[in-house]
Amino acid sequence: MAVKRVLVVNKTFPAAGLNLLKEKAQVTVVPYVDYEPEIVAEIEKTISGHDAIVWNTKHHLTPEILDLAGPQLKFVTSVSSGLDHIRVEELKKRGIVLGHCPQESGGAVADLTVGLLIAAARRFKEGVWELERGEWKCGIQWMLGLEVTGSTVGIVGLGCIGQAVARRLKGFDVARILYSGRSDKPQAKPLGAQRVPLEQLLKESDFVILSCPLSIETNHLINADSLRLMKKTSVLVNIGRGELVDQEALYDALKERKIFAAGLDVVTPEPLPKDHPLVSLPNCYILPHLGIATAEGRNSMATMAALNILRALEGEKMLYPVY
């Protein structure tokens, strides 16, 4: 049997997954990373003749790139849970099997979400700014923030990450956990979470957490209209995708204090320019997409991706197939 060829399209793919692939396949690794402009041209130049692709890049897998890959390509896996950078229907039409890497426990992202929520609510950014400028003021009314205890938390998208966030926040003695989504989640009951319409969630929540996938329906889910529904004392946390939020509307809402604060681990574009208006706001706490950026998390997803491909090459069902 001929040795199967696998293309890994970003050189940062962790060794945990790469070594697995090399045991049973001939592996080519594109020698660039996402922020290097040469990466797309190198992918296009290299992609032909491979049986499988590990698509570990933020760049879109387009029909044009698939045309260059040729008919030999049968398997693709994303090294992510979300698939907004992959034309799923296009792959399906071509008979290409697609896998992904769901964050099964959601632990790393959930930990960061709680940290981001607290940082925004307790005004960490403003506090650090004043400390660095030598403007640390003493006084019982200085730098007052918001407490999580006794609050109402609304989670948009109660998937594995949303559930992990809810489990952690229960330890903070929140009063209520609301969630919105397409259907009831059986996991909600032990969490004490109540499914409500999005409008109700926005109106009643002290903290609104976005952990839903990006789609046509959820693009700019948070916009000027939805921000007007939120409390002036509310905090918005986005750990889903940047495009879930209309950032111009969010800037206006934060600047005019229509909501209290925002904590963002995802933005658009990424990287966000240092002179972007949101960066200048004291009540907007932004992280550079650190969600699953732990050694354990990256190695786990690389292993999932490798197993997706290896199982498929051996004629078995992918470990985590999309369809």
Question: Tags for this entry?
Answer:
323 residues, alpha/beta, Rossmann fold, 7-stranded parallel β-sheet, 15% strand, elongated
SSE string:
EHEHEHEHEHHEHEHEHEHEHEEH
Shape: elongated
| Corresponding CATH superfamily of the largest domain | NAD(P)-binding Rossmann-like Domain
- In helices, the fraction of residues equals 25-40%
What is the β-strand count? 12
Radius of gyration: 21 Å
Strand order of the largest sheet: 8-7-6-9-10-11-12
Write up this protein:
Strand 9, helix 10 (224-229) and strand 10 form a beta-alpha-beta unit. The protein is 35% helix and 15% strand. The protein has two domains: 5-102 and 295-313, 3-Layer(aba) Sandwich (Rossmann fold); 107-286, NAD(P)-binding Rossmann-like Domain (Rossmann fold, 3-Layer(aba) Sandwich). The radius of gyration is 21 Å and the shape is elongated. It contains twelve helices and twelve strands. With 323 residues, the chain is of the alpha/beta class.
What does this entry show, briefly?
The protein is an alpha/beta fold and 323 residues long. The protein has helices at 15-24, 38-46, 63-69, 88-93, 107-121, 124-132, 160-170, 188-191, 198-204, 224-229, 247-255, 295-313, and strands at 5-8, 26-29, 52-55, 75-78, 97-99, 152-156, 176-180, 193-195, 207-210, 235-238, 261-264, 284-286.
List the helices and strands and how they pair.
Elements (H helix, E strand, L loop, with lengths): L4 E4 L6 H10 L1 E4 L8 H9 L5 E4 L7 H7 L5 E4 L9 H6 L3 E3 L7 H15 L2 H9 L19 E5 L3 H11 L5 E5 L7 H4 L1 E3 L2 H7 L2 E4 L13 H6 L5 E4 L8 H9 L5 E4 L19 E3 L8 H19 L10
